[in-house]
């Protein structure tokens, strides 16, 4: 009950200040102030203030926030470990990966990561076509 009264008083004060700004011919500022002033009143009318007050004093709600915090920490820690490993798979020698020599260049590693079945050759042809288009555009502009 006290929270609703305070929100209503804040809204009334904000609308009063907005009226003074409008009287001084600052209509844009007055409209913005009125919008901010109506937010607490809208929260009271929708029951959000009562829900927040009920949640703040509920031990079950705080336990729920604790569980959400633990879940968030788990997400962050697994992401950090994944970044630290460099995106390697959990299982050693996962399905779909092929062995590459330790000193292999980056393009050969990219080719091994592509699906099997002749698609790697088609992708190489598409890249060549893309470069010929670029070369034609550059020649057209005299570069």
Write out key terms for the chains shown.
single chain, 143 residues, mainly alpha, flat
Protein model, in words:
- Helix 1 packs antiparallel against helix 2.
- The protein is 76% helix and 0% strand.
- The chain is flat, with a radius of gyration of 31 Å.
- The termini are far apart.
- It has 143 residues and is an all-alpha fold.
Instruction: Please summarize the sheet with the most strands.
Output: none
The class by helix and strand makeup works out as: mainly alpha
Q: Percent range for helical residues?
A: over 70%
Query: What share of residues are in beta strands?
Result: under 5%
Task: Categorize the overall geometry.
Answer: flat
Rg, nearest Å: 31 Å
Terminal Cα span: 75 Å
State the helix count. Answer: 6
SSE string, helices as H and strands as E: HHHHHH
Total number of strands = 0
Quick recap of the structure?
This protein has about 140 residues and is mostly helical. It has six helices and no strands. The mean pLDDT is about 80.
Lay out the secondary structure.
Layout: H1 2-23, H2 27-46, H3 48-56, H4 59-85, H5 106-113, H6 119-140
Helix pairs in contact: 1-2
């Amino acid at each position: 009950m006290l929270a609703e009264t305070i929100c209503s008083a804040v809204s009334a004060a904000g609308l009063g200040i907005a009226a003074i700004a409008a009287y001084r011919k600052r209509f844009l500022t007055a409209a913005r102030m009125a919008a901010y002033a109506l937010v607490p009143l809208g929260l009271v009318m929708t029951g959000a203030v009562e829900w927040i007050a009920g949640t703040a004093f509920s031990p079950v709600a705080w336990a729920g926030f604790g569980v959400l915090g633990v879940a968030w920490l788990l997400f962050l820690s697994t992401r950090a470990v994944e970044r630290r490993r460099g995106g390697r798979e959990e299982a050693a020698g996962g399905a779909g990966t092929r062995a590459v020599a330790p000193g292999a260049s980056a393009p050969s590693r990219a080719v091994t990561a592509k699906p099997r079945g002749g698609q790697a050759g088609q992708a190489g042809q598409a890249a060549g076509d893309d470069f010929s288009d670029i070369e034609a555009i550059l020649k057209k502009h005299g570069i």
